[in-house]
Write a structure and sequence with these properties.
The protein is an alpha/beta fold. It has two domains: 95 residues, ATPase, nucleotide binding domain (Nucleotidyltransferase, domain 5), CATH 3.30.420.40; 76 residues, 2-Layer Sandwich (Nucleotidyltransferase, domain 5). 35% of the residues lie in helices and 19% in strands. The chain is built from eight helices and eight strands; from the N terminus they run H-E-H-E-H-E-E-E-E-H-E-H-H-E-H-H. The longest helix has 18 residues.
Length: 205
């Protein structure tokens, strides 16, 4: 990894993303023409944030004729955790409306995370009840529902294990080497559950 930047933006981050990208490129000693591909976290997460991030990434790819690879946000969180082989890792995010987004992984001997299930949206109580023994829980779900997850897992919140752009880049690079890339005209955020706007358009039955 040549450079990595983080920014805690107030409100929409649409205006702050270009400046953050410029700063990271400058720290790496590169210009935009040196970029060969873009990796982006595809969700689940904030509907607005996912649309902004993916839209910005797609715009850069269209403008530079670059390949785009997508990475599950939960998978990236699971890879950001330092854990011993055999340890179960659950990445879980507060999804609001008394739900969490979650996915369970196992740490392989070479450090790779093997999926044990899909990304899903479920009640925090249901997730807590199904966590395996010795599980590491990463994300902000436990801080949103502390009483639910107390004593259920070893908790690593964003203060100890924040989301990492470098992890997304590393996972994206591995996918590029395997020949994977997104179809720019078709790729959409992985919402896991329908956005509010889509629910509002559904007819009553």
């Amino acid at each position: 990894m040549l450079a990595e930047g983080t920014l805690r933006a107030q409100g929409s981050h649409a205006a702050s993303l270009p400046g953050l990208v410029d700063r990271v490129l400058a720290e790496a000693g590169l210009d935009a023409e040196a970029v060969e591909a873009i990796a982006v976290s595809i969700g689940p997460g904030s509907f607005t944030g996912l649309r902004i991030g993916l839209g910005f990434a797609k715009g850069l790819c269209f403008a530079g004729s670059l390949p785009l690879v997508t990475v599950s946000t939960l998978e990236a969180l699971a890879h950001a955790v330092e854990a011993s082989p055999g340890t179960p890792v659950c990445a879980a995010l507060d999804a609001r409306k008394h739900e969490v987004y979650a996915a369970l992984f196992a740490v392989e001997p070479e450090g790779r995370r093997r999926r044990l299930g899909p990304d899903q949206a479920l009640a925090p109580e249901a997730l807590a009840a199904g966590l395996p023994s010795g599980c590491v829980l990463v994300g902000d779900a436990a801080s949103a529902y502390p009483a639910v997850f107390e004593g259920r897992a070893r908790v690593l919140g964003f203060d100890r294990c924040p989301p990492r752009g470098g992890v997304v880049a590393r996972l994206g690079w591995a996918r590029l080497l395997r020949g994977e890339r997104a179809e720019l005209g078709l790729v959409e955020p992985a919402y896991v559950r329908p956005p509010e706007a889509e629910l509002a358009r559904r007819p009553l039955r």
